[in-house]
Amino acid sequence: MGNTYSRRAVIVGAGAVVAGTTVAACGEVARTAEPPPSGTPLGSKSAIPVGGGQILAESGVVVCQPQEGVFKAFSSVCTHRGCAVTSVGNGQITCDCHHSTFSMTDGSVTAGPAKQPLPEFRLKVDGDDIQAV
């Protein structure tokens, strides 16, 4: 004969599975975009406003100009749950999935739930062109 389980045991077991799944879903997910290959065009200086930037979804990169003449590149993949960041402005990079914000100066978290900074990618400026390194 097979094992028999009480209704209570089945309900308690199912509740434990649901609770475990819920806790796991709330955890940090450290998915990021890979750095673009060296030489990949990342736009032009003239297209990146001071205090703002551009999201290059196809490259997985956000290019910012936190202050006049200083350009930074970060992963466009939020470190919280792997959503794509949605906007850049007022010195911040924003992910609207769960409302995390990051500093465009160094990629650090300025508001959670993300706990990890956006990875920074190397770039070079050649004239008006910005390229991955």
TrEMBL record:
Keywords: 2Fe-2S, Disulfide bond, Iron, Iron-sulfur, Metal-binding, Signal. GO terms for molecular function: 2 iron, 2 sulfur cluster binding; metal ion binding; monooxygenase activity; oxidoreductase activity, acting on paired donors, with incorporation or reduction of molecular oxygen. InterPro entries: Rieske_2Fe-2S, Rieske_2Fe-2S_sf, Rieske_Fe-S_prot, Rieske_Fe-S_prot_C. Its cofactor is [2Fe-2S] cluster. One of its GO terms (cellular component) is membrane. Residues 39-132 form the Rieske domain. Gene3D superfamilies: Rieske [2Fe-2S] iron-sulphur domain. Residues 1-24 form the signal peptide. Iron-sulfur subunit of the cytochrome bc1 complex, an essential component of the respiratory electron transport chain required for ATP synthesis. The bc1 complex catalyzes the oxidation of menaquinol and the reduction of cytochrome c in the respiratory chain. The bc1 complex operates through a Q-cycle mechanism that couples electron transfer to generation of the proton gradient that drives ATP synthesis. SUPFAM superfamilies: ISP domain. It holds the Pfam family Rieske. This is Cytochrome bc1 complex Rieske iron-sulfur subunit.
